[in-house]
Design a protein that fits this description.
By secondary structure, this protein is an alpha+beta fold. The protein has 2 domains: 22-296, Clam (outer membrane lipoprotein receptor (LolB), chain A), CATH 2.50.20.10; 312-450, Glutaredoxin (3-Layer(aba) Sandwich), CATH 3.40.30.10. It is built from 8 helices and 19 strands. It has helices at 22-30, 77-96, 167-174, 184-189, 341-359, 377-389, 404-408, 437-450, and strands spanning 99-110, 113-123, 129-133, 137-142, 145-150, 153-161, 209-218, 222-230, 232-239, 245-252, 263-274, 289-290, 312-315, 320-322, 330-336, 364-370, 396-399, 416-420, 426-431. Helix 5 (341-359) packs across helix 8 (437-450). Mean pLDDT is 84; it is low at 1-46 and 53-60.
């Protein structure tokens, strides 16, 4: 008996009451998903990934670019010509740097709130690079070899040959066409002989389609170029001393969203040019496993039939629960977080199943497992308890304070629930929120209870 349900994506508010997930939208705009799979469409929000850590780099001094600030003169043919000339200088500056590091903070502000993503990149000689997206995805080029790993588990890696020096093509293929949100990629890795008017089209950064240069002006810290493309506008700020990009501001309307639905995306970039990197870029494959696709990277989720890892966690009320002590009973674990909209929809549905099982006196234990909260342990506990106590659920929740158990179970998106049989093996895995799962899970639990432990 097995079941695995997974639906991902986002939806905009409508009459059905479906909530919009700014977290998933932000990942679409910045072209980065933890599994290295990039969003190309929008659907109902049913599962969310782990939240990102706070940004590690401070924003540079460049002021926010405003498309409305460009005058008619700054949109003239003469201004456009000057802007294209500046893009050529910027490309030359990126390509001439013997070594370069960038720390990029991507801030996305939507009507639903604000989210941040961090991109760190290093650029060495002979096309070498090392790019990490928020500690969740890492891509490297060493010689003619491209590597992709998950920083949480670099024991598995994906590799491809970089044919004819086409690193951009390899990156696009590895990310499903999404690319990576780092301006150094088109400027440093793009064709050196590309015509100036072709450069703006390289700067969509996953948020705009086919942008064109429509304005150019001098700003306090350098120059600013105004781009317009399908889906939005962007202002690219370039530093007067280095000619490198130190800020990009976008105003975008995602595909399928109402025209009035605007989202601000700011790329603030701290870069440094040096003679050589402190540590040369390298990747050692010794003792590591090569995989054939991004799905094989990183921690792997438990599959049906696997022995459920034992653990000892406390409930939000402070009681200790050890999984192995429940052997002989069926156990349901539901991984959730306070920030996860689909989890909040799914928990009341699960509560209906709990009440049904209690009334039927079935030997089934249900536990929520709170994971991926931000802050110190005490703050995590207070946050989870504050939410849970107000719900009056008929079952308890455990807390995974250091996220060790969620890692053991290979969970990459929540809500995810496991039905563990009497013998301690995983019998069912549910990923995402499905309002129709009540009858399905009832049948699964009846079958699990009927099996011998």
């Amino acid at each position: 008996m097995s079941r695995s349900d997974a639906n991902q994506g986002v939806a905009f508010p409508d009459a059905t009451g479906v909530d919009f997930s700014e977290f998933m939208l932000m990942r679409q705009l910045t072209a980065a998903l933890a599994a290295g799979v990039f969003l190309t469409g929008l659907a109902t929000a049913t599962v969310q990934d782990a939240p990102k850590a706070p940004a590690k780099a401070a924003a540079p001094a460049a002021a926010k670019g405003d498309p409305a600030a460009f005058t008619a003169a700054e949109k003239s043919p003469e201004a456009i010509k000057a802007g294209l000339s500046q893009f050529v200088k910027t490309r030359s500056a990126y390509r001439a740097a013997p070594a370069l590091t960038e720390a990029i903070v991507i801030t996305v502000k939507s009507p639903m709130g604000e989210q941040k993503t961090m991109v760190d990149s290093q650029w060495g000689a002979n096309g070498a690079f090392d790019i990490t997206v928020d500690g969740q995805m890492r891509m490297l080029a060493v010689g003619s070899n491209f590597y992709m790993v998950m920083p949480a588990d670099e024991a598995r890696y994906l590799t491809e040959e970089i044919a004819d020096g086409d690193s951009i093509g390899v990156i696009a293929a590895a990310t499903g066409g999404g690319g990576l949100p780092d301006p150094a990629i088109p400027f440093r890795l793009g064709k050196a002989d590309a015509k100036p008017e072709e450069i703006p089209a390289m700067l969509g950064l996953g948020a705009m389609v086919d942008p064109k240069l429509v304005g150019f002006r001098t700003a306090a810290t350098g120059t600013q170029a105004l781009l317009e493309g399908q889906g939005g506008k962007a202002v690219v700020s370039m530093n007067s001393k280095t000619n490198l990009v130190d800020r990009i501001d976008l105003i975008v309307t995602p595909p399928g969203a109402p025209p009035e639905f605007k989202i601000d995306v700011a790329f603030t970039i701290k870069n440094a040019v040096m003679k050589a990197l402190k540590t040369p870029i390298a990747f050692d494959t010794t003792g590591k496993t090569k995989v054939d696709s991004p799905d094989g990277l990183g921690p792997q989720p438990l599959t049906v039939g696997a022995m459920a890892p034992d653990f000892e966690l406390k409930t939000l009320a402070g009681e200790t629960v050890k999984l192995s002590s429940l052997r002989g009973q069926v156990v349901v674990l539901d991984f959730w977080a306070t920030w996860c909209g689909p989890c909040k929809k799914g928990l009341p549905v699960l509560n209906q199943i709990v009440q049904w099982a209690d009334e039927a006196k079935m030997p089934v234990k249900f536990f929520g497992v709170n994971v991926w909260e931000q802050g110190e342990v005490a703050a995590k506990l207070a946050l989870a308890k504050g939410f849970w106590d107000g719900q009056k659920f008929a079952f308890s929740s455990l807390i995974d304070p250091d996220d060790a158990v969620v890692a053991q179970y290979g969970v990459t998106g929540i809500p995810t629930s496991f039905i563990i049989g009497r013998d301690g093996k995983v019998e069912v895995v549910h990923q995402g929120f499905d309002p129709s799962m009540v009858e399905t899970m009832k049948a699964e639990l009846k079958a699990a209870v009927a099996e011998k432990g």
